[in-house]
Write a structure and sequence with these properties.
Length: 294
């Protein structure tokens, strides 16, 4: 079998088209565009790229887009003060604080300070709690898990009843929320991780395999059940000497070429889950704006 490649860019483009329409409709109704503020602390190069892309996409969606860059030496109190200012700004509907934050700043305290109604990352305990209580329709849901589910549903349809989903990874950003979303689609869900015994065997029982463990190409083709749908959330930069000295390339958590011989469908890296994350951030911003004005 050669797996179907799930085109994240194409699916993201459909989501973004809907966002643009919703953004224009919101502006017609309220007289202002949805507003998204992104906060970056420090100069982590990967974070700078992500934040730049988010700003670009927000502008393309017709949003008011703000980027706040703070030096790595900033105090936690100053970050909290900025979050407070954005909470109070009626023209800002979404606040995203790019993670990871520098050492010395308590991430939990910062995330807790964001108004849950503006928490477009879905990381505030109120939104986490709503999702875990089965009330995802009332919550802002984390972008990467929500985007992964749309890609999965583009293959399976919305019901996963009778299917075994294995999530490899237990992060708050991806593993735990995606497991909740799978459960809500009636999948039987196993959360595995880097310390799970017999990980390969457990993966081989997965009809749906979500890889979010953050280890380059850890999941081999021989771990994939024939016909499984594989969602690869990993983004790992590895050396690529074949491309020249000092060059690198992006790979997922799955050995894609191997898995393609076994799976029925798989997301590529890059071009799979990545574009969906940004698209869902824009979708969450329009949702937050509509809920706030509703
Ligand atoms: N860093 C890596 N992924 C994310 C994300 O989804 N949201 C935020 N805020 N930071 C991140």
């Amino acid at each position: 079998m050669t797996a179907r490649i799930i085109d994240g860019k194409a699916v993201a483009a459909v989501v973004l088209d809907k966002v643009r329409l919703a953004s224009a409709a919101f502006k017609d109704k309220t007289g202002r565009p949805p507003g998204l503020a992104v906060v970056l602390v420090g100069e982590d190069p990967a974070s700078q790229v992500y934040v730049r892309n988010k700003g670009r996409e927000a502008e393309a969606a017709g949003f008011r887009s703000e980027q706040h860059t703070l030096p790595v030496s900033v105090s936690e109190a100053e970050v909290l003060a900025l979050v407070g200012k954005l909470n109070a700004d009626p023209g800002i509907d979404g606040i995203l604080v790019q993670l990871p934050l520098p050492k010395g700043i308590d991430t939990e305290r910062v995330l807790l300070a964001i108004d849950p109604a503006k928490d477009v990352d879905g990381f505030h305990p109120i939104n986490v709690g709503l999702l875990n209580a089965g009330a995802a329709d009332k919550a802002l849901v984390p972008c990467t898990p929500a985007g992964s589910m749309i890609l999965l549903e583009s293959v399976t349809g919305s019901s996963l009843a009778g299917k075994h989903a294995v999530v490899v990874g237990r992060s708050n950003i991806v593993g735990k929320p995606v497991a909740q979303l799978l459960l809500q689609r009636d999948a039987t869900v196993t959360i595995a991780h880097s310390k799970t015994a017999n990980l390969a065997e457990i993966c081989r029982t997965a009809d749906v395999l979500v890889a979010a463990v953050g280890r380059p190409e850890m999941i081999r083709g021989s771990w994939v059940k024939p016909g499984a749908v594989v969602i690869d959330v990993g983004v790992n930069r590895i050396p690529a000497p074949e491309r020249g000295e000092g060059k690198t390339r992006l790979v997922g958590d799955v050995a894609t070429a191997e898995a393609m011989d076994v799976a029925s469908a798989i997301t590529p890296v890059p071009g799979g889950v990545g574009p969906m994350t940004i698209a869902l951030l824009m979708a969450n911003t329009v949702t937050a704006a509509s809920l706030r004005e509703g």
